Amino acid sequence: MELSSRVKGMAESVTLKLNSKAVELAEKGQQVYNLTAGQLPFRPPQDFIDAIRSELDFLKSYQYSPVGGFVDLRQKIIQHIEETRGINFSADVLDGVDFDCVISNGAKHSISNILGALINPGDEVIIISPYWISYPEMIKFCRGVPVEVKSSIFDVFTPPLAEIRKAISEKTKAIIINSPNNPAGVHYSDEWMSDFAELLLEHPGIGVISDEIYFEVCYYDPKPTYFYQKKPELLKRTIIVDGISKAFASTGLRIGYCVAPKNICKGIENLQGQLTSSANSLVQRAMMNYNFANSAQFLTPVKNHLRDNATIIREKLRENDLMKCWYQPVSAFYFMIDFTQTPVFKKYQKDKTDTTDYAIQICEDMLNNLGVVIVPGTDFGMSNSARISLVLHKEVFSEAIEKIVKFLHG
Fold first, then answer.
1. Are 50 and 402 in contact (CB under 8 A)?
2. How confident is the model at residue 121 (pLDDT cuts 50, 70, 90)?
3. CATH class label, 5-43+297-409
4. What percentage of the chain reaches a pLDDT higher than 90?
5. Sequence ranges of the chain with CATH classification 3.90.1150.10
6. CA angle 252, 258, 263 (to 5 degrees)
7. Do the Cβ atoms of 50 and 291 come closer than 8 Å?
8. 46-291: CATH topology
9. Rounded mean pLDDT, 254-274
10. How do strand 256-261 and strand 238-243 relate by DSSP bridges?
């Protein structure tokens, strides 16, 4: 039996390849420092665990929920989005448009559902590099065309609006923004969001998928803001994506959701009903009985942990005269290292005109020689760079960064 052309054309994950090698080395007894993780080394909030436990004895926890999720939970999520983003889905400027929520098996599932519901063959979707690894492959799987707009580490990954404007064509169906950003560990400024809102008003046919899964994981002020806060009428063509994976430290529970105009949610729900049916009923029921506001207290030590590890990177870079690589991560779990600004890059680059992407080779050498695993920026649309996760325990993280900076020093 032959695989479909869509699957055969799907890019293999470099991250999985490196992780397989890391497991192999660990099994041979080598110390391996895995800085690839997008999940916290913390248990979820205890009261959330208690809420899950309290639902174990109820039959409905083991049965299907409605395809789009329990209605009460959907309403609770919509209210949560209104409160945390400071918006009103009943505002007059929205002309009576009704909004709904669809609960899925993680935010990743939500995004794939959205693209499957929106994209026709040949439709273009603008993505901003560095982007989350799966965006391009998801778009292509839906027979759409990913159109990349590059940002730069020298502008702290602020997407140039002039380049977004250039990328817009008659075929543009949507723009995906991810703020706070994985892999950059930053979020777009309030000023940028205002300008982006104005740009969207110039193009009334374009929708926006706003991936906000790291919204609550901001450890330096100012907090994230969004274009639809500046121009609320844009909510009529915006799909907000969030979930519990990051804010509740619950990646394995697989609950994500989107909030959007009701007609869009209906299409997403129909698609989900045919492909996967409803999300985890047990966890949905626990969420109905959990006070979402409690996650703020839970996240305080998490944010301190991320801030401390970001400081460790800064100090190690400073000690080794590598501050050209430094920028201030402020949100999400990550930091991007630019290899071109390090002495070791000269060992790979043939001459100054050589623009080859050596990220995978450098990361492989780092793993083989140091036992340190980081993710090549290649998968994120950023050549000659890599993503470092900040989530490891402090002592182990410090050891790993010490090894990385010595390697980068050449």
1. no
2. very high
3. alpha beta
4. 91
5. 5-43+297-409
6. 145
7. no
8. Aspartate Aminotransferase; domain 2 (3.40.640)
9. 98
10. antiparallel
